[in-house]
Design brief:
Length: 256
Amino acid sequence: MGVPDADIHPTATGQAADTVAQHQSPQELVFWSGWFCPFNQRAWITLEERGIPYQYKEVNPYKKEKHFLDINPKGLVPAFEYKGKALYESLILCEFLEDAYPDHKPSLLSSDPFTRAHARIWIDFVTKSIIPAWQRLLMAQGVEKQDAAREELYTAQRKFAEQVKGPYFSGEEFTLVDVAVAPWITREYILAEHRGYKSADVSNEWKKYAETLATRPSVLKTNSDKDKLQPIYDRYLRDEAQSEAAKAIRAGRGLP
Ligand SMILES: N[C@@H](CCC(=O)N[C@@H](CS)C(=O)NCC(=O)O)C(=O)O
């Protein structure tokens, strides 16, 4: 019997499909990607921003196929194979690209120690505060729970927006802080359509920042068609998803 979550559109579509088509030839870096996944998009945006050569390979992480578990024992996308060796965890992959490809400009992390550490504080805030609140709102059933989850998300996003120098988090340069949050910004329309979310209700600063990130070419180039994404999100909206993230949110645990 198949796993219900495994029944997803098999490949990237829209602009992301063109990007996939440009990255088929063998390279020392293989990007094991799930086209639909926001964590995955972090690694993908970083690869595109920095023009790093990579070979794109699609994997459906819900199938937990042995070949993929050998690469990432957690069975989660994204993952890399670099010179035949496996790596995973989206933010670690983004930082790995900084270390392994220093000559590929622009760097997305400052060389100044304080600025690097400050960026990491806010990347951590995205992962620990914004994303869990986002996911809780997505899965919340009933008006009361949705209102509470929406307020929790607004509060976290407001706090983040107060730190944004504009147009990007650190000012003129697009950095890993922007990468960390962009995939959830480009999916905000789902919360707007189904959960009464309005980016203008967070703050004007957030709304402006969100519009800037959503139109960044590396974000657009890694987006698939909304109609292919919708059935995946419908399962979360009905609170029927069985992904590791869905189970963690339901159980009140941190995200995988
Ligand atoms: N902490 C991981 C999370 C990755 C993750 O949750 N990926 C999801 C897709 S969006 C996945 O592979 N899910 C498979 C499953 O839940 O079984 C990261 O940042 O890379």
